[in-house]
Amino acid sequence: MVSARGLTKRFGSSEAVAGIDFSIRRGEVFGFLGPNGAGKTSTMRMIACMSPASEGTLRVRGLDPSRDGPTIRAGLGVVPQQDTLDMELTVLDNLLVYGRYFDLSRRVVRERAERLLDFAQLSERAGSRVDDLSGGMRRRLTIARALISSPELVILDEPTTGLDPQARHLVWERLYRLRQEGVTLIVTTHYMDEAEQLCDRLVVMDKGTIVGEGSPRELVDKHVSREVLEVRLGEGGHERLAGDVRGRVERVEVLADRVCCYGDNGDEMLALVHGLGYQPENTLVRRGSLEDVFLRLTGRSLVE
Amino acid sequence: MVLGLALPSPRRARHVLGRNLVIYRRAWPLLATGVLEPLFYLLSIGLGLGHLVGRVDFAGHELAYKQFVAPALLAAAAMNGAILDTTYNLYYKLKIAKTYEGVLATPLSTADVALGEIGWAVARGAAYSATFLGVMAALGLVPSPWGLCCVPAAALVAYAFAATGMAATSYMRSWQDLDIVALALVPMFLFSATFYPLTAYVGWLAVVVQCTPLYQGVLLARSLDIGTVGWSLALNAAYLVVMGLAAMVITGRRLERLLAA
Ligand SMILES: Nc1ncnc2c1ncn2[C@@H]1O[C@H](COP(=O)(O)OP(=O)(O)OP(=O)(O)O)[C@@H](O)[C@H]1O
Ligand SMILES: [Mg+2]
């Protein structure tokens, strides 16, 4: 569906995307996970033929964005990071007008618009001004708008950033439905849980490069232990704790506010910490996650 | 590709006009202003002031002042309408509402957006001037059948100025910058042989006036209206065509830089 070799994006002298390779298969949900400034949006814009690649080869649905931009975009749905709804139009008109940009007939556009308003749970707001919608509603409208051309590939740049948990779950549920219908989805996010929930495969990006790739499970298995113990000491002393347990657990990381110990058995690690005489303010034993993968691969935590 | 720019597709660009129609369908009183502006000038200056002025010489014809001024107002209104559409209105869409960022995720390209917005300004200019020409006819100010060609002439004026306005707006950084446009436009409106004949100017000034784009439009509209048609008018028309094309190339490059970096 999409393949890239040495894909690069430069803005002046800075490299936003520094020669990345990936390939996305038909029907999968493919994620780009990374912190602010990793180059996710720059990559999305290149795939969406909205911004030319500085270097490298990119093929989208078998076509070359530098030559066939309009043709590629005709089969693509795009949900940009910032909503780009038409502020001068009503909710319904946003869908109708957008559909016309794809050269669809008025009849087809109207049918689909009604179905999509329903899909986005916005039927009651059809006549509202975009200004009057909540953030979550706008996001849903943006997603609905991206689907007006019945695309087989949809690009979603941080679809749920800024939404409350309920609104996020609604968006996820809509995305599952699309996947069930066979639509290929590309999703960027800096939420671990989102990547874990949604993505069949993903790449972890940092500073314009890809530092890891695979399914969420594979990534965790490959880079992180089965269990993780998080320890918060009230009075500091995190470094000392790390020194004491190093060598007796698989791996240990000191973060700004906690120490993470990696190993097969979290309870055993906790017993070790207690045995060394520490009285932590609080502790947490959990399974290894993408958050840990990111920490492992970049030495930094994803969301501070 | 021409000069490194992708060519626009009229088929795609027409949907930009479609969008603007949806908006103005709801705000049609705004559209009426385009007809009212030249009408007020015609009533106040052409008919009112005209009483004091008497007759004016144009290309060997003695014209009533209102007859002299009316076609010029038609051309000037086409200019003003096109500039309004492609400066203030366009600046809002380009920089404030960011209308085109959504549009460019569809098959439309920056060239299509440029063509569509210019097409919209031309369509509006043509519609206004057709209406105004109707008013002129009712007042007995369209003596020649050539007068009908004032509508395409006004559309040509709208085209040249819409493309230029768009190119200029692509360089604007704030609303204040837009005032520069007014600074260039008002003198052009007043001094392009709009309200008095070219013979009012001394030698070199007359040459300057004949070089302004609005002068071409005024001359075209006035000549067609009273039927003094000659091949030399093709030069005036060519001036406007070239001006529009050059501005479109600049606009295409600028929009690509602003919107598709
Ligand atoms: N139009 C631009 N001009 C100049 N620099 C840019 C432009 N767009 C992005 N950049 C730079 O490129 C780098 C990558 O930005 P990008 O928006 O792709 O990151 P991102 O992963 O989407 O981040 P976020 O999570 O904050 O959205 C950043 O350093 C950013 O400052
Ligand atoms: Mg981004």
Secondary-structure topology with pairs:
The complex is a heterodimer of chains A (304) and B (261).
Chain A: E1 2-11, E2 14-24, E3 29-33, H1 40-47, E4 55-60, H2 65-74, E5 76-79, H3 91-101, H4 106-119, H5 135-146, E6 153-157, H6 165-180, E7 184-189, H7 192-198, E8 201-206, E9 209-214, H8 216-223, E10 227-232, H9 238-245, E11 251-254, E12 259-263, H10 266-275, E13 282-287, H11 290-298
Parallel strand pairs in A: 3-7, 3-8, 5-6, 6-7
Antiparallel strand pairs in A: 1-2, 1-4, 8-9, 10-12, 10-13, 11-12
Chain B: H1 10-26, H2 28-53, E1 55-58, E2 61-64, H3 65-86, H4 88-96, H5 99-103, H6 110-138, H7 150-169, H8 175-191, H9 203-211, H10 213-226, H11 232-259
Antiparallel strand pairs in B: 1-2
Helix pairs in contact in B: 1-6, 2-3, 2-6, 3-4, 3-6, 3-7, 3-10, 6-7, 6-11, 7-10, 7-11, 10-11
The structure holds adenosine-5'-triphosphate and magnesium ion.
Magnesium ion (MG) is lined by residues 40-41, 81, 157 of chain A.
